[in-house]
Design brief:
heterodimer; A: 254 residues; 5'-nucleotidase,  domain 2; 4-stranded mixed beta sheet; 11 strands; globular; B: 315 residues; alpha/beta; 2 domains; 22% strand
Chain lengths: 254, 315
Amino acid sequence: MRCCRSFRIYAILLLACIIASCSSGYKVVKSSRSDYSINQDLSADSNIIKKYLPYKAKLDAEMSQVIGRSAVLMSKKSSDTLPESLLSNFFSDAVLQQALKLDADIDFALPSTKGGLRVDLPKGNVTVSNVFELMPFENELVVFNVKGTEVQSILNFIASTNGQPVSRLKMKISNKLAVDVLINGKPLDPNKTYRILTSDYIGGGGDNVPVFKGITEKKVLGLKIRDALLNHIKESEARGKTLNAELDGRITKA
Amino acid sequence: MEELLKLSRRNFIKTGALATATFALALDSMDALALERTDLVKLTILHTNDVHSRIEPFPLDGSKYQGLGGTARRAALVGQIRIKEQHVLLLDAGDIFQGTPYFNLYGGEVEMKMMSAMRYDAATMGNHDFDNGLEGFHKQLPHADFPILCSNYDFSNTLLHRSTQPYKIFKKSGLKIGVFGIGLELKGLVDDRNYGETIYLDPVKKANEMAVLLKNELKCDLVICLSHLGYKYATAKVSDQVLAKNTRNIDLIIGGHTHTFMEQPEDVKNLDGEITTINQVGFAGINLGRIDYYFEKNKGKLVKTGSPYLISNEI
C-alpha cells in the first residue's frame, strides 16, 4: 500500500515534469549574432532627420557659437600623463578662478573627478557645444569647510585614484597616499579649517569622494561648473588670450 | 546590407570582402532553412546601450568617433532589417539621457521621440536617466511610446510610481519573450536628490525572481534582461558577469553602463549550467547589436533542457 502511494506520488511528479517541460512551446536550436557599425556607409532615414531638425536648428544657433580658441588639444584620455592631465589642470584652474570672484577665501579646488570631464577640449575654435559636452551636468559649485584632520582623507582619495583635477594643491603620490602636500603653497595644518571648492555632486558623496557628505558648513556659490567654464573662456577671448594648459607637476608620483 | 554586418571589429577589418561573401552565404542558407521548416521560428533582437543623447552622428572634428552613430542612420538600418525579418525586438539598456546639448536644452524629449519613431520595444533606466531627477524623467515619459522596464528599483514612494514596469512579455507568432530591467546602485553615483525615495533592491536576487517568474510561471520561451550594471569589474562589484553566473533562466543579458565594445557576445554558464549570453555594444549608438535566435517547436516530446544549442557568430 505504502509502495503504491509512493509510486503514485512519483507518477504525479513525473507527469508534472513532463507538462512543465512541454508547456514552453519552443526551444532555441540556434543562435547567431553580429553587430553593425553605424557609419557613413549607411543611408539616413529622412523622416528622423525631419523630426529632429527643428530642435537642431535652435540648438545649433546657440551651440555653434565660437567663444574662444585653444592652443592645444586637451585630451580626456590622459593615461600617458597621469596623475595629471592638460584637461584636468585647465579645467580646475579655470573653475577656481571664476569661483574666487564670488568667494576669495578658497584654499584649494577639486571641482570634479576626472570621470566628470566627459570629452576632449579641441585645439582651435572652442564652441559653446564643446563646453556643454565637456561638462554636460548641471552641477553647482560649493565651498565646504573641512577640518584639517579630515583633509588628508580627501587627498588620499586623489592619490588612490591616480590623480584628479585639482587647483592650488601640490602633492605626491606614495603607495596610494598623498605626501609632501602643499595647499596654496603651505603644508597641511591639521589645526586649520580648510575651505575647499567642489561641486554639489561630489559634496553629496558622488563618485565616492569621501568626507564632504557629512559636512553641514558649506556655501553654495550659485554658479554652475559649466557656466564657470563658459565665463572663463569668454573672458580669455575678450582679453585676446588663447586657452592653454601645462603639466606643472602639481600631482606627481613619489 | 550584408556588407555592413560585422562579426568583430578586428576580424572585419582584416577579412573585408571575403567575410562579406561568407556572411551573405550564411544568411541565405539559414533563411532557406527557416523557410523550408515551418516549425522553425526566427527572432531578431536588435539592441543599443548608453546612447547618451547622441541624436546626430559625432561631429567631424578629428575626434576618435567622428562621423559615427546618429539616429537617422540607425533608424534606416533598423527599417531595412524589419523589412527582411518578421519578428524583431528593438531594446535599449539605459543611459538614454545626457551627453550632448540636446539633453541640456530639451531634457530628453528628442531622445524619447527618436526612439519612439524607431519603434523601440522597451528600455531600462541607467544612472544618467536620473540626471534631471525623477521629475525630469517623468516629464519625458509622454514622449516614449515604449515601456521603461525596472525590476529592482522600488519607485512606490516616488513620482515614478506606476510609470515603469518590472517586465513585459512580447508575443511573436506563438513565441513568448519575457524582458525585464535591472539597474545599478544609485547611491554614490547619482545625487541623492535626483533619486529621492527610490529603493534599490539586490539585482541578483531580483533577477532570479523575475527570470523564474517569466520562464517557469509565465512560460516564456526566451528571457532577456536589460541591465545597466556594467559588463565586469576588477572588484567584487555586481556586474553582468556576476549576474549571469549567479542566476538561472536568463538567456540573454543586454548590458550597458561600462561602454564596453565587446568583440563578440560572451556565453557564460549560469547556475543551471546553461548558457546566459552577455552582450554590450559600446556607447553613443556607434554600433547596433544583433542576436538572432532560431526556435524549434516542441511536438509534445520531452525536451532535455540544458543541451547546448548551436551558436554561430555569423548572421
